[in-house]
Amino acid sequence: MTTPTDRLAALRSAYIASHPASARQHEAACAHLPGGNTRSVLFHEPFPLAFTRGEGARLWDADGHVYTDLLGEFTAGLHGHSNPVIRAAIDTALDAGLNLGGHNLLESRLADLVSARVPSMQLLRFTNSGTEANLMALAAATAYTGRRKILVFKGGYHGGLLTFAGGGSPVNVPHDFVVGRYNDLAGAQALMAAHAAELAAVLVEPMQGAGGCIPGEPAFLRGLREATRAAGALLIFDEVMTSRLAPGGRQALLGITPDLTTLGKYIGGGMSFGAFGGRADVMALFDPRRPGHLPHAGTFNNNVLTMSAGIAALSQVYTPAAATVLNARGDALRERLNALCRAQGAPLQFTGLGSLMNLHATAAPIRSVDDLPTDGQPLRDAFFFHLLEHGFYIARRGFISLSLPLTDGDLDGFAAAVERFVDSL
Ligand code: PLP
Question: Which of 142, 153, 270 is nearest to 208 (CA)?
Fold first, then answer.
């Protein structure tokens, strides 16, 4: 029997042999970037791939290999590489000049489009990333309530400075965090009761994305809505990833209205993007006409490339109909992959919702990161290198995010590669 560790060793040797140009690029990058890296999630041993080009749903690496892109830039690349409509919108913005240093005609149009899609965002402001959006939402919540504590959940990821994978991170911002267990409503209620008078907000992903595509159970999320209301704290939905799961985000699917929502990723049409917004009375804190208003700065907040690309993407490319179709295709793919694992009796499953999914090395139910096997990484690494060998690119942690240009043939090919992996175990 081949163990995942044996299989991984063979796959890694083949990877090293067939990617000399990526290896050289990594070595050169180490001169001035620590570990050759400027974005931690992209690094993996023995060295990461260096890409040279993307088109539609395809990627090319420095060694000339071509891959079907099933990562879709961790959800930001939903539209595929160089979508012509978005490309034209960027060209139009370029023609009118960059860095105007003032208001432009685009920012309010994008705000209107976002608010129409996510009506709980009565007022909103743009940032350059999802991280910044969450930092600003927390600032809004603490200022609005005059309280300091924030309830978050183990496994949650709200940006590089707000990460709770192992419960926290040395580079997190120094908010007064209380960490609960995801999908444990009774536990969250107990923590909220213990900190009620000091609790400013609950910050939660409607599905934990980086934590492994673990969906929040409707009763858990609804319970948080009721409990925050009772405690006078704000409920912040981080929909940076999950807003793509339906035309109005997961909040629309569940019929839950948070006080604040944060967005990011694909909404800027593939340009740097973030947004935070919600109840008009909370967001009015940032109204510069009001005495004592809160500042919110950012040179690139209303940059014309993002605004123009975002308008085109939301109004013409990721339309409500396109969102519904893509997520139905994702649901069908995930069910197909899980059926395949079950048929072989493999200790594997794909969790997730709609167009987002993650492989885990267990067939047991997963409700929080505490249910994940601690020794699952060799298997996920073997899966990652196996897929590269078969021409498919996903995240090393087993994360898959579908993009619009993927064809049914691409997904059939992927399912066949997964089947070969399961058979090989
Ligand atoms: N929130 C969630 C749920 C995310 O998945 C991410 C990024 O993966 C962020 C926030 C941070 O977004 P950004 O990388 O744009 O800072």
Answer: 153
* 313 touches 305 (CB < 8 A): no
Q: How far apart are CA 196 and CA 227, in angstroms?
A: 10
**Model pLDDT for residues 302-360, shown as the tens digit of each residue:** 999 999 999 999 999 999 999 999 999 999 999 999 999 999 999 999 999 999 999 99
Catalytic residue among 15, 157, 182, 318: 157
Residue 233 pLDDT: 98
Is pLDDT of 425 > 90?
Answer: no
**Which residues sit opposite 61 in a β-bridge?**
51
pLDDT tens-digit profile of 123-155? 999 999 999 999 999 999 999 999 999 999 999
- The mean predicted confidence, pLDDT, of the chain is 97
CA distance 119 to 134: 19
| 160 CA from centroid of ligand 1 (Å) | 8
Supply the DSSP symbol for 275. Answer: E
Place of tokens 């009015």: 284
Question: If DSSP codes are grouped into helix, strand and coil, which group holds residue 130?
Answer: helix
134 C-alpha to ligand 1 centroid (Å): 9
Annotated catalytic residue 375 = no
Distance of CA 163 to CAs 135, 146, 248, Å? 12, 24, 25
**Which letter, b or e, does each residue of 195-211 get, where b requires 16 or more Cβ atoms within 10 Å of its Cβ?**
beeebbbbbbbbbbbbb
* Encoded tokens for 7: 């299989």
Ligand 1, residues at Cβ distance < 6 Å: 74, 129-131, 134, 157-159, 205, 209-210, 238, 240-241, 264, 274
Give 290 Cα–ligand 1 centroid separation in angstroms. 31
